[in-house]
Protein 1
Amino acid sequence: MIPPVTMTSDEIRAVYSAGSDAVVALVERLLGLLTDQQVQIGALSARVAVLEARLAQDSHNSGQPPSSDGLRKPPKPQSLREHSGRPPGGQPGHPGETLRMTEVPDRVEVRSPSACTACGISLREIEGILAGRRQVFDLPSLRLEVIEHRIEEKRCPACGERSVGAFPCGVDQPVQYGPGVKALGVYLQVYHLLPFERTSELLADLFGTSPSPGTLHAALHAGAAALEVTEEQIAEALRHAEQAHFDETGVRVDGKLQWLHTVSTETLTHYAVHPKRGRDAMQAIGILPAFTGRAIHDGLASYFSFNYEHVLCNAHHLRELTFVAEQHGQAWAAAMKALLKEAYRRVEREKTQGADRLSGYAVLEIEARYAALLAAGRREVEGLASPRRGRRGPRKQHPAMNLLERLRRYRAETLRFVRDFRVPFDNNRAERDLRMVKVQQKVSGSFRTTAGAEAFCRLRGYVSTIRKQEVRVLENLRDVFQGHPFVPSLHTPPTPA
């Protein structure tokens, strides 16, 4: 901070009495201090603007998750879907999910009248006829089944040799939990995201006894080890996919920030955790270097260092355009947001009518309007003051200019969904696959070890994959612990137009 200049009346008169040269020197000194203060005020004002812009970011105008919004409610994002005009709820002709009677109940309880309601005579010996029935679907009392395996020893009558039977594969302790309990524990942790302690408590409430957190931890790692080959098969299928979604998010592992990377399609999911976010991590994971299809991502620079067809996520663009329009008053950003949403609706409308592309005229019109908005945006953004790097350093490029330049440089990657109906408008497929892992972080706080994070990723990727393929999760996790895991379909179907 520049200290304030203070002078008494006597000091001012002394300078005046010293002559014009002393007065000129004093004024020049004061002007110099004023200039320094103006520079400092400008730098502080720019810093305040940056901080205010950062505070104004939430889930509706940036990539921040809704969980970061706290108690304040940001404006609700407007849906890109057009209103169908139909009332909410089930539509006429929809089969519904009503509970229906079964013809073969597990148990029948007959309720007969014991006496006549008119005269009171006993009816116990009178045979009744069915007057009505109702069914209740309920859970039986839950208890663990204890299976005791015994082996016998037999002596050969011919040679006298003693032979002993063998315990089943996997039964290697005097007392242990079976594959069903281990599968349920892993299912609750990996799919429903319960921590070890709460999983143990839930199993105790259900069955009266439960595995300890240490036993659950061992089951998690055993299940992950059994899926090592399956995980590599999923990764290999993703390398040859026609189209895949890529994304990454920060996770806490052993108290440090690491990055969770996902690659996904409509039928496959792969997760990997790595200390880095960019190219080094992508190389180590090993899917991107061999991928030659169409990659949908959020524009992280590292993705562009690989050779494939790029598609940028327009959901990210809409949030950034919202921020620039609201916080910096940029009219071009509001108009660009409206154009992208209009283009999306036109594409979706044509899809519902059976078309596989927009007309050439419609494509050229959208691209021409896009180019015109970029030109208008450059004229508008150039009037914005950019923050300095320090007190006297060069100015940083304004965030609005950064967004404008990305939209200009990657206009083909941004508008590819207009020319090719197989290309999605956004990267929501990958974001949905990451969302539940972020929920796990909220519930458990972090992964305690890298090995634990890797085991969770492998099991979660497997569960996500079989869930996408409409395979029952719990019974297939049981198969994992019995040594013959279900192998999901590794064929990635062609992307529908």
Note: The beta strands are 153-155, 162-164, 243-253, 256-264, 269-274, 294-297, 309-312.
Protein 2
Amino acid sequence: MNEASHVVLGGNGTIGRETIRALVSYGHTPLSVGRRPAVVPGTPSIQADLLDAADTEVALRGADVAYFVPGLPYDSRVWQEQWPVLLNNAIDAALSHGTRLIYFDNVYAYGRATERMTESSASAPASRKGRVRAAALDLLAAAQSRGLHFTIARSADFYGPGAATSVFNTFALDKMARGKRPVWLFDADQPHSLTYTPDIGRGLATLGLADTAPGSVWHLPTAPAMTGREYLQLAGDARPSVMSSATMRFGAVFNAAARETLEMSYQYTAPYVFDSTKFTEAFNVHPTPTEEGVSAALDAALAPIPA
């Protein structure tokens, strides 16, 4: 029987791994839940399908806090079909066991933010994926009336060591590691916030261990926004290849991933500035300096793949 007080739903993904590492560093032994055994050494795990309500219910038995951090393919159709199922299963299991739910979110529900993004920014989704995320917030709000204690934790676009689904890792750092020119999307001179994945893990663990108000929203620790050109200069290349929207539109004719990326292009053609001041002031947890984060992520990309 599961007796872990902290359970990470989606423990094998980038954010799940970092959350587990943070909880361990704080002296806890979290349980990892996923389709495969835990990939963080020494972590107990349950193999479960979070799309299955019964599996999710079993996973949360005895849990005081659950961290909802599953990943899905970057496909709007998959998100529309599966995200509500995943979340409803987690909500029902959390209510069944009196578990507090830490819901990891992105900023898609904010849509085309014209000002600095804060916890009080309005929900105004401008994409299919954004509408899925906004609908998820409605599910959580409705569940609060049933007694669910949940906390929403948001990050900006993320990057970090081994962050395979990060745009910055994929288009820039991984290319540099292969000796190729890095790519930035659409406009390398717009400020664009990036959240470092170990900071996300520390932030989620901090919220899980804190007494936060039900339904509260927190922006996880994020360093000041820089331009794409400045990020790449830190990585050692100040001459990025900038992918134009025309090139992306052409690619979208043939490539589903390009179509999904094109939908979110508004995040790269205007200032994308994420403010985490509230979190830093409340918990005295500060973001990793960008220079250190970029260096660590690039070192990880350059490291040889284990045999």
Note: The longest strand covers residues 100-105.
